[in-house]
Amino acid sequence: MPQMLLYLLCGFLAGMLGGYLGVGGGEIMVPFLTVIAGLDIKSAVPVSVAAIVVNSFSASNEYLKHGMVDLELVIVLAIFLVLGNIAGSNLSMVVPADYIKLLLTILLVYTAFSLLKGRRVSKRLIFSDNRTKYLPVCLALAFCVGTFASLVGIGGGVFLIPILYLIVGLPLTTARGTSSLMICFASASATAVYFVYDLIELSIAAPIILGIALGGKVGGFFGTGAKSIVIRVLFFLVMLYLAYELARGPLEGLV
Amino acid sequence: MKEQYFQIKVLIRLQKVGWIFILAWFALGTVLYVLELSVARQVAFWGVIALLVITLVKVFIIAEQFRMARLYRFCLLSYALFFILLSTVLLKAFFV
After folding, report:
1. How far is CA A67 from CA A10, A22, A60, A171, B56, in A?
2. According to the 3-state scheme, what is the secondary structure of A59-93?
3. The pLDDT value given to residue A28
4. How far is A188 from chain B (nearest CA, A)?
5. Is-above-0.90 flag for pTM?
6. What is the CA A60 to chain-centroid distance, rounded?
7. Which one, of A208, A173, A214, A201, lies nearest residue A64 by Cα?
């Protein structure tokens, strides 16, 4: 029983932190579940991917309500994102856990520095629609993002939003909304692969998914405004600590 | 785009109900695991199935919205996505 409550609490804290910071998905969840709850990364990744599907239900709803989702783009890119996710989740069965940890560490350090820097969005007034011009590039990128995302147990928003904003030319809020709905389909496909291969540990999935979904809602509620520099530095340090703990094992093995 | 003709409310309602249902289902699963009842595994198992089914229903709704808006190319692409998702489970379940 205490173990169940620990998983529930860890899921809640990871979801709340992710929701509060607006970094979403598995960037926080997988390191948190690995370092704090003591799960093996190959158990944490499938649970995180399943939790992302649940979280994306509520996240994409907010954007849908305000008409900030480009459904045509969702469908076109989601096909390649899903194919990438299927490839990535199959790949994760042969890639050693240490490599997955190192990939996630790099992503975590990148997210920590992005958080510290804050969101400085250029005030673009004219949005050019490049969807037909750069479609092949976007499809290839969506496949690569999907592969990487399911390998390390993240949604992929950290890459998809810049692709939609900088390459396709969508407004930032529409890019976020479009990405959140795409992530739902992509993570569901990865969940399906992990589920069929029996890689989702059901005994830990129930409390963690419950905790993450509740925590994500609470964190999202409190994290709508801008964060002060003190909070950003605090979370920057937490994320660097998680990155250090995650990379320590694999790096010691290399030395 | 003809998205202004879409009945987005259907999709929003499905996601809202789906989120609450999944949350309640996994809460039940957690309680059963805490009580160490053997049925807990079955509950968690069907919870993951429900998650995948809701996602498939979402794709189906989007496909039908495209069909009603006479955006047939996107309707076909939506059904392609539907079958890719479905085949992920079916192919692996029956041939792996």
Report:
1. 34, 20, 10, 12, 22
2. HHHHHHHCCCCCHHHHHHHHHHHHHHHHHHHHHCC
3. 81
4. 6
5. no
6. 14
7. A173
DSSP class per residue in A84-151:
HHHHHHHHTTTS-HHHHHHHHHHHHHHHHHHHHH-------------TTTTHHHHHHHHHHHHHHHHH
In sequence order, what DSSP letters do the residues of chain B get, joined into one string?
Answer: --GGGS-HHHHHHHHHHHHHHHHHHHHHHHHHHHTT-THHHHHHHHHHHHHHHHHHHHHHHHHHHHHHTT-HHHHHHHHHHHHHHHHHHHHHHHH-
Would you say residue B5 has pLDDT above 70? no
Interface contact flag, B81 A185, Cβ < 8 Å: yes
Closest CA to B19 of A183, A222, A17, A56: A56
User: Which tokens hold the place of A217?
Assistant: 């809602």
DSSP sequence for B42-54: HHHHHHHHHHHHH
DSSP label of A163: I
Q: What is the per-residue pLDDT across A196-240, written as a single tens digit (0 to 9) for each?
A: 888 888 888 899 889 888 888 887 777 666 567 777 788 888 888
CB–CB of A231/A31 below 8 Å?
Answer: no
Among all chains, which residue has been given the structure tokens 């994290």?
Answer: A223
Amino acid identity, residue B30? Answer: T
Q: What does the pLDDT look like over A22-59, one tens digit per residue?
A: 666 677 888 888 888 888 888 888 998 998 888 888 88
**Cβ-defined contact of B15 to A61 (cutoff 8 Å):** yes
**Residues A195/A85, Cβ–Cβ less than 8 Å:** no
Residue A45 C-alpha, separation from nearest chain B C-alpha, in angstroms: 15
- What pLDDT is recorded for position A170? 85
- Both structure tokens of A197: 């291969």
Q: What is the mean pLDDT of residues A156-172?
A: 86
B29 to chain A: nearest residue by CA? A206
